[in-house]
Amino acid sequence: MSSRSADPPTVPEPDAPTSDNVWVICLCAQWCHQCRDLQPAFSMLRRQQPDVRWVWVDIEDHSEMVEALDIETFPTYMVVADDEVKVLAPGPTNTDALNHFVRLHASRRSGQGLNNPPLWAVFQAIRSWAQGT
Hints:
It contains four helices and four strands; from the N terminus they run βαβαββαα. By secondary structure, the chain is α+β, with helices and mostly antiparallel strands. The chain has a four-stranded mixed beta sheet, with helices on both faces. α1 (about 35-50) links the parallel β1 (about 25-30) and β2. The longest helix is centred in the N-terminal third of the chain and has 16 residues, at about 35-50. It is globular and about 35 Å long. The relative contact order is 0.20.
């Protein structure tokens, strides 16, 4: 018998989002030091992945849009792809982890999102605001 242990299985990296139908919305607050520290990484990802809509929403400046969400943990992300809210959850605060978080959730198959009409309404409000309509 060999005492050599088997290599652990590798987990493939999810595919990068490749559609302008992918939205990453960071729900944050200016007073949150983690949010402020994240802003440069978020901006860098916006420049590196122009096919993804990266939107920064300060929940205090735009409380009317997001009040239904009752956000308590910062930063919280909403990832929308294929016309579905894939996730609404607190998330990472560094570039690599955020990129992985987005890839993981944006690559979920259709029908695996959150079927929640009030959540979809919040996304619609944010999308209209972000597009200036």
